Amino acid sequence: MGGGRELGQSRIFEQPGGCTTDVTPAGKCDIQSLRSVKRTTNAHRRIERQEVDRMLMNHTNQTEDDLFSCYSPSVVSYRYFAVLWGCAVTITGTVGNLMTILAFALDPRLRTRFNVLIINLAIADLLYCTILQPISVDSYLHLRWRSGELWCTLFGLLLFLSNAVSIITLCLVAVSRYLLVAKRTVFDRVFSDRGLMLLLASAWALGLASFGPLWSVYVFVPQVCTCSFHRTRGRPYTTILLFFYFFVGLTCVGVFYLLIYKRVQIASQALLRYRPSRRSSRRKPASSVQGTDDSGVESGMANTCSCEISSQADLTQSKDVIPYKMVNQSTQSSATSSNPSAVNRPPDLTPAPTSSTAAALTSPSATSGDDGEFKRVTRMCFIVFLCFVCCFVPFMLLNIADKHNRAPQVLHMFCANLTWLNSCINPVLYAVMNRQFRQAYHLLLTRAAVPFTSLWTRMISF
């Protein structure tokens, strides 16, 4: 009864380990045996607790490995190609964008208002190539993210900040090119020195304000082996952002370049119609007097000039085109009165251009040399925009079409790797399509090679 049993006059209670405790003085339990049993029980409990903790720790580590792993048998061989690709992008992009910034800082001819936008684009690409791209290469090499959760979140923020600034800068470049040929006075107000600094600061602030609220949504994405925002957790905000930047922004850039093309075509046709009437009074191109600057807007230096926009003297000349026609007609009438034979001469049937067309025709961009320079710079900017679109469109279309991640992981990785090229291809385009950037790059490489050349000369002399 009551957990014990009756034995004569005493009540005996069973204890763990087979030991009994007699409540009568005659029956005593071995105290040492009881203590040993308690120690054994506690030891077993500690061992069990350690085993449970070890199992939980192993489960946690396994979960973290699963969260930050992009391993798949289908991408084991492809990762080596991605690593080589990433290394080439890192080296080319870092060296090229750094040379672009140094060329702008050291060459006075390149320090123009338009080239400030080019430098802002180079800074955004340099941020990606020097900081983000090496980490992407490491994740592809090991097929897992090894930099921790905090850096994964920061990586995602910097990635989209760089892309946002690039898109905004491309929009500013397109708008500036259009205002150069359409509304010069508006260009001078918006893209003044103070206005440029405000625009560039606003570009970075807008990118940070757009993608900063997604701080808790940036995760590791195994399909592309990098950190980005979660596909569904941030909706609909992420969908609105991508639509605004990649669709609306890039569409606006394309529209402005289309408008530029139409304006240039109209000016060229008007110039061809107007040239015969100005053969006797046409002045020589500005390139015969001073070197043209095919880098953009004038720098304000005494020895440089812009190839796209007219100077104040050219604007004054453009305003005098119509009075010149009137003076010419009055001269002809006076000549007719003094010379009767001039009555039979046919009049000049070429119509005088309007004030806006005349301004375009008499500006340096309307002359043969400067018009070619303007077209080359605009063509270079347009190709930079096309390269950006070609790098990102396959990745965007794949993510839209493959909502359930049914496409092969290799295809996702390849489209993601294609976006890497955007950060390193711009300096190559500048060198190929812009004479002054090409000369500045050559000068920088020559200066950098001087120590190695002198060292090689000394080694040969010995």
From TrEMBL:
Compartments in which it is found: Cell membrane
Show the GO cellular component annotation of the record.
plasma membrane
Which parts of the chain are coiled coil? none
User: Which parts of the sequence are annotated with region: Disordered?
Assistant: 278-299, 331-371
The molecular function terms of the Gene Ontology recorded here are:
urotensin II receptor activity
Give the stretches traversing the membrane.
Answer: 82-104, 116-135, 155-175, 196-220, 240-260, 380-398, 410-432
**Top-rank taxon, per record:** Eukaryota
What Pfam family is a match for this entry? 7tm_1
- Boundaries of every G-protein coupled receptors family 1 profile domain copy: 96-430
Tell me the membrane topology, using the record's own terms.
Multi-pass membrane protein
Sorted keywords for this record are: Cell membrane, G-protein coupled receptor, Membrane, Receptor, Transducer, Transmembrane, Transmembrane helix
Q: Return the PROSITE patterns for the record.
A: G_PROTEIN_RECEP_F1_2
CDD domains according to UniProt: 7tmA_GPR84-like
* Identification of the protein by name: G-protein coupled receptors family 1 profile domain-containing protein
Query: Native species of this protein?
Result: Pleuronectes platessa (European plaice)
Its organism's taxonomic lineage begins at:
Eukaryota, Metazoa, Chordata, Craniata, Vertebrata
